[in-house]
């Protein structure tokens, strides 16, 4: 035995009884990571940026970088920053604006990243 309810009908019912329908989250930044050290750095940066009010998403399931970038596009992230061994060693990364592909090189600090998000 099963149960089904159409999403549109559910939304109409909620609307008719005066309930606010939440809008989907729009992420400011997606931190893509390559490797264990980069994943740790992404978690740390995400924590710091969230404390500063930035909506950040990171990979939680071990996707490839290509899959992470695809996911960032799917969720509508405004920017993407890819972290890997080279970026961590140089303490610099390229912040990519998803709307037009423009890239900006910056230091891998929460302050610099937050400043670069317009």
Automatic annotation (TrEMBL):
Keywords: Ligase. Its EC number is 6.1.1.21. One of its GO terms (molecular function) is histidine-tRNA ligase activity. Pfam families: HGTP_anticodon. Residues 30-108 form the Anticodon-binding domain. It is an enzyme of class 6 (ligase). This is Histidine--tRNA ligase. It comes from bioreactor metagenome. The gene is hisS_48.
